[in-house]
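Quick one: LysM domain-containing protein from Thauera humireducens, structure tokens please.
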Amino acid sequence: MSDPLKAFMQANALTSPAFAPDSRYHGLDTAHWTGPDGEPVTYVRRRFIPPPEHFATLQHHTVAVGDRVDNLAARYLGDAEQYWRLCDGNGAMRPDELTTTLGRRIRITLPAGIPGGTDV
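--- reply ---
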């Protein structure tokens, strides 16, 4: 028996965007691939990390013992799931890169392309 939700989604029955506006994947194109078994798979095309210079700095945070990027996102951005914005603003591909080095200064930024901040 097939999964009805999977069948619904594969039939492109959803009329709203696949990702919420605050998702790092919002606005990315999707593509389709058919596996050797004939099963169709929908996937999100590659997302490139924007250059850090596209982000205006609001403030900095110095990494301390126990810091986690999701907790920092909750503190500075009001939403732990927005950790990817900290990654983007600092050019980090892997979230744990931001908090592994004690004393590192992390930029807290506005979203890409929004002017403002200090950039110091």
